[in-house]
Structures are given as structure tokens and as C-alpha cells.
User: Fold this.
Amino acid sequence: MKNFIHLFFALAALIPAGCTEPEPNISPGNNIIKEGTTDSLTWRLAGDGTLTIGGTGAIPDYYFLGYDYIPVSHWVMSTTTIKMVVIEAGVTGIGNYAFSDCTDLSSITIPGSVTSIADYAFSGCTNLSSITIPDTVTSIGFGAFENCTSLSSISIPDTVTSIGDSAFSGCTTLSSINIPEGVTIIGNRLFQDCASLSSITIPEGATSIGAEVFKNCTGLLSIVIPDNVTGIGAYAFDHCGSLSDVFIGSGIKSMAQGSFDYCPLIASMTIMATTPPSLSLGRTSSSMMSSEWYVNNFNYRVDTLYIPKGCMEAYLSVVTHDSNIKRGPYSLYHWSSVFPNIVELDTQ
Assistant:
């Protein structure tokens, strides 16, 4: 008995003070730190930053008013914690501001059940470098990926027919993107400040190019505007400092103010319209009584304009003008004052 007591105390001395029983080895990824429900969906946020959303129906809208999101009873209060998002099959849409300003978000899985990505859904996700959009999606909302500064490439499926204004503005590292053939309106500021974008194909079905679409796309080298486009918006290519090759199709009818401002490398331009498009006129002084008018589509003079064969007489006529301008000596302004050299192409 005495020997047993000595053995007991000897073993007890080997156990560190304050130690009871070993804690279970719980992986941070399996440790759910927050969870809840929203409408018919359930969500859970794990310790490794993985947010999983399941159930049926669309992720609801979360509106941003001032500095407050409304409502706040969801994962939006953990935007700096979320690193990965897994949306499970059954979810049908991604609502307004759903993941806005999740600055650590680097990966997201979108299932084939999703048909729409709403306004500002991923805006300000500055660590998101790539995303795959399934071919069930038909619309991308206003500012959906605005200021995703790490987003370098994205593939948009042909099923998408609508892309909202500013959807990719501020994506400064975006170098590759496609616009599906079903998109007819290239919205305002769609690619503004995408400084790494060097080329892009505008679909044949497009009918208009909005205001400031490619403003400050300093890496853009060339652009082909297809025949169905009838109008180019104000400052559409403003400050595209590398742009040197411009081809405009036969359907163009109007080019708004500053459409090619601060594009110093454009030495020549081709316009295939047989009827010259209207240009925007401005004044050289702040006085509204000034009679000194100028064509203000171009901040830098473009030396040569190439036009269809047989259209020289039309292009040497008076420059057409913005219908909102009611006065001014329009007869003083001809296409030859904008383009010193107008050359007919050998073929139409």
C-alpha cells in the first residue's frame, strides 16, 4: 500500500499545474463563429472566413444609406472577416450590396441556379482577383464590380443581355473582358478608370456607347465601333492616352461633347458613315455672346480622316451640330477644319 501511494504522487508530479483534460483539436475552418437566416436562406460564417449560403430564393437587397447598411441583421457586419463565399445550389439571385466592401474576399463560388447579380453586389471587394459567372446569369447590375481593384479578368457568358452603368468602373487591373453579343447598350462609365484594359471588342448588336464609358482607360490601344452603333456619348474615350487606332462603323449619327478628348496619339480616324455624323460645338470663351465656336469632340487635332468612297462632298459641307445649341456662326465650321486631311477610301 505504501509503495502504491508513492507511485501515485510520482505520477501526479508529472502533470502540469492547472491542467485538467486535453481540449479537442477544432479546426478554425469548422468553427462556426456566426450564423443566421434571411428570408428562405440560411448562412454560416466559419473561423477561416468562409461564408456559406444555402436554401432557396434570392439573396435579398441590402441598401446603403449614408454610412449605414439597412438592414444589418446579416453578414454585412462581418465584411472584413469574409475571405471566401460559397453559394449553394438553390440560390437564385445575388441582391444589392450583398457582398459590398468585403475587402478580404478573394474567392466566390456562384452556382448555376443564380440568374442575376444586382447593383453593387461586389463593389469595393478590393482583394477579389477573378470570378466565374455561370451561364444561367442574364443580368449584371449597376456598379456590380465597381472598384474591384484586384480583378484582372472576367468571363461574361453569352446569356447576359444587360450590364448596368459603372459595372466595372475602377477595376484598375482589369486587362481582359468580353461583352456578350446580346448586350445592346454599352452603359455610362462601364469601364471608366480601367487603366490596364488594352483591347476590347464591342458586340455587333450594340446600338449605343454611353458617356465616359472608357474614360481614363489609359492602356486602351484601339477601338472598332460596329455599324449598328448610332451614338457615342460625352467623354466616352476621354483621356485614353494610348489610343491610336479608331474605326467607326457606318451607322454613326452623333458624337457627343469631348468624345475623344485628350487622345494625343490618334493620328487618323476612319468613319464609314456616308452621311457625316453630328459633332458637338462649344465656345472658346465663357461669354455666351461669343461668336468664336469650335468643334469640341477632340482636344487634339486628328490629322487624317478616312471616309467612304464618293462621300467627299458631304464631308466638306458644314459640320452638323448639337440641336441644343441655338446660335452661332455654324457656316464657319467644316469637317476640313477638324481634319486637315480627308481621304476617300478606295472601296466602300
